[in-house]
Specification:
Blueprint (H helix, E strand, L loop, with lengths): L27 H6 L30 E2 L3 E8 L18 H4 L8 E6 L11 E8 L4 H4 L7 H7 L1 E10 L2 E4 L7 E3 L4 E5 L5 E4 L4 E6 L5 E5 L3 H7 L15 E4 L9 E3 L7 E8 L4 E8 L2 E3 L1 E9 L9 E9 L2 E6 L6 H8 L4 E2 L1 E6 L5 E6 L9 E7 L8 E9 L25 E6 L4 E6 L11 E6 L9 E5 L5 E7 L6 E6 L28 E7 L8
Parallel strand pairs: 8-13
Antiparallel strand pairs: 1-28, 2-31, 3-4, 4-5, 5-6, 5-7, 8-9, 10-11, 11-12, 12-13, 14-15, 15-17, 16-20, 17-18, 18-19, 19-24, 21-22, 22-23, 23-24, 25-26, 26-27, 27-28, 29-30, 30-31
Pfam family, one: PhoX
Protein name: DUF839 domain-containing protein
Organism: Roseicella aquatilis
């Protein structure tokens, strides 16, 4: 997701940078060399910044919040997004109603803050949340799929937020609130030619750009197309899906544009910033086992409406502690071209996050059969320029049980008894140099709950992830976003209760309401310190 200060002018590098999420990984050669890049040797004592501390994240039906913090549930599956949304009835879902309500699944894509403060002085923002999946086992009574309702439940929600006291609320029926889904009219631009297509499918990530737009990344459209083709002939042709979609988050009438110059593949996430000479830079992950990390560099400066319609797509090749960007032929299939060019196959590259203070990208790798628990890689651009043709790489940490042979954490390791990350899937970097990393086992219940971890990128606490929040049973963490002042952190809980063997009627939890007959609901949360001040200290 895009850097939080991308549209606010805050932060020392806000003029030229902008993104907030990192998922990623590295190829075998790079990872085998990476442990040597960690801070050397155990220290006699652990020195950490901020107010985070080690704590367990037990598997339970409720969630877990760090001491000194509170969490507010802001919007849940089925809550209305647009003013004309009907009341939610999970037992009788209708496509028209679902198209105006918050979706079944939820992952943060970006938070856009107006450049100019409101006349009344109340801080406001537009939050973008994507809805990647709709699993019929837990979304529909009896587990019987309803494809058209599912097409409406997926997509994206744009929500008006405003600050009230120390917390934030979702403005019911706000002016910029809108839903994107299977019926949304989009324009196609770039090398694929001008045209239109109706619908967005399988959005998996997104970011706010420094030139003032929102990017939303479509994942692999094949499962959705197979599911929907019989119900709606529009989905018989998949050429209109699998792209990066761009729109104006502040204009509810803006038509989303699918930017074909960025390539068509199974996107995991995107992150946008500017090169030193003002060109647009968009990083993209190919979210597969053995997927690639791509970078798009625009041909011209990011001052025109269609800046993403012309430029160079390149793939990353990692060798030891170095990364080189290999340009790909224009118009070629990105994945096939990346393989032929010698790009590095990664361990399911997923989330992306950019440091607002310097040209540093974080890449969260979900994991692979070779390295099941995943890892987080740091990519630092040459000459502090995201447009440079090379970069340095370092391992932030290798995830997993610290007692195991593959886990690698920073100097001193994790505090005794603390939870540890497994399958890092999202990452955001705040203005204080701390990464916020969310984990996702896809509903599989392990020895601990899924968690949101804060991890310093510099200093004695580098590479030591400490938990802030734990999800309820079978729920995953759908990213993080912070307000410009850092005093509120937003996250989502994805598909709580969706544990293998459970069902719509008998979920593993009924979080967050715990009412008989009410299914568990993916939820957007706000986390703040009880005494005020920046999240994480």
């Amino acid at each position: 997701m895009g850097r939080d200060d991308a549209m606010t002018g805050t932060g020392p590098r806000a003029v030229r940078r902008g993104s907030d999420h990192a998922r990623g990984g590295c190829g075998r050669r790079a990872l085998l060399a990476a442990p040597a890049l960690l801070l050397p040797g155990p220290a006699p004592a652990q020195v950490l910044r901020g107010d985070l501390a080690g704590m367990p994240l037990p598997v339970r039906q409720d969630d877990t919040v760090a001491a000194g913090y509170r969490r507010d549930a802001l919007v849940r599956w089925g809550d209305r997004v647009t003013f004309d949304a009907p009341a939610w009835d999970p037992r009788q879902p209708e496509p028209e109603g679902a198209a105006a309500q918050f979706g079944w699944d939820a992952r943060l894509a970006g938070i856009a803050v107006p450049r100019q403060p409101a006349a009344d002085g109340i801080p406001r923002a537009v939050m973008a949340v994507v809805h990647p999946t709709v699993d019929p086992v837990w979304a529909f009574p009896g587990g019987r799929d309803q494809p058209l309702a599912a097409a409406a439940m997926q997509g994206a929600s744009l929500l008006n937020l405003e600050k009230r006291g120390r917390g934030w609320i979702v403005v019911d029926g706000g002016f910029q609130s809108r839903r994107l889904g299977g019926a949304t009219l989009c324009r196609i631009s770039g090398p694929a030619g001008a045209g239109s297509v109706r619908g967005v499918l399988g959005l998996g990530g997104g970011c706010v750009t420094p030139w003032g737009t929102l990017l939303l990344a479509e994942g692999d459209p094949a499962p959705w197309l197979a599911r929907l083709a019989a119900a709606d002939p529009r989905f018989g042709d998949g050429a209109g899906f699998g792209w990066v979609v761009e729109l104006d988050p502040f204009d509810p009438q803006s038509v989303p544009v699918k930017r074909s110059a960025l390539g068509r593949f199974a996107h995991g996430d995107v992150a946008a910033t500017l090169s030193r000479d003002g060109r647009a830079v968009v990083y993209q992950t190919d979210r597969r086992v053995g997927g690639y990390l791509f970078r798009f560099l625009s041909a011209g400066p990011a001052t025109t409406e269609d800046v993403l319609d012309a430029g160079t797509l390149a793939v990353a090749r990692l060798e030891g502690d170095r990364l080189a960007w290999l340009p790909l032929p224009a118009g070629a299939d990105p994945v096939a071209a990346a393989r032929q060019a010698g790009g590095s196959a990664l361990d399911t590259p997923s989330g992306l996050g950019l440091d607002p203070r310097r040209a540093r990208l974080l890449l969260a790798c979900h994991g692979s059969p070779a390295r099941p628990a995943g890892h987080v890689i740091e990519v630092t651009a040459k000459d502090d320029d995201d447009g440079a043709d090379s970069a340095g790489t370092a391992l932030l940490f290798a995830a997993g049980d610290p007692r195991g042979p593959e886990a690698r954490y920073g100097r001193g390791g994790l505090p005794p008894g603390s939870a540890w990350p497994e399958h890092p899937d999202t990452v955001t970097v705040d203005g204080n140099g701390r990464a916020w990393i969310g984990t996702d086992r896809g509903g599989r219940v392990g020895p601990q709950a899924e968690g949101l971890y804060g991890c310093d990128l510099d200093g004695p606490g580098r590479g030591v992830p400490l938990p802030l929040y734990g999800a309820p049973r079978a729920g995953s963490i759908g990213g993080a976003a912070l307000t410009p002042d850092g005093e509120a952190l937003f996250t989502t809980v994805r598909h709580p209760g969706a544990e293998p063997g459970s069902s719509f009627e008998r979920p593993a939890t009924r979080w967050p309401e715990f009412r008989a007959g009410v299914p568990p609901r993916s939820t957007l949360l706000g986390l703040v310190r009880n005494g005020g001040g920046p999240v994480g200290g």
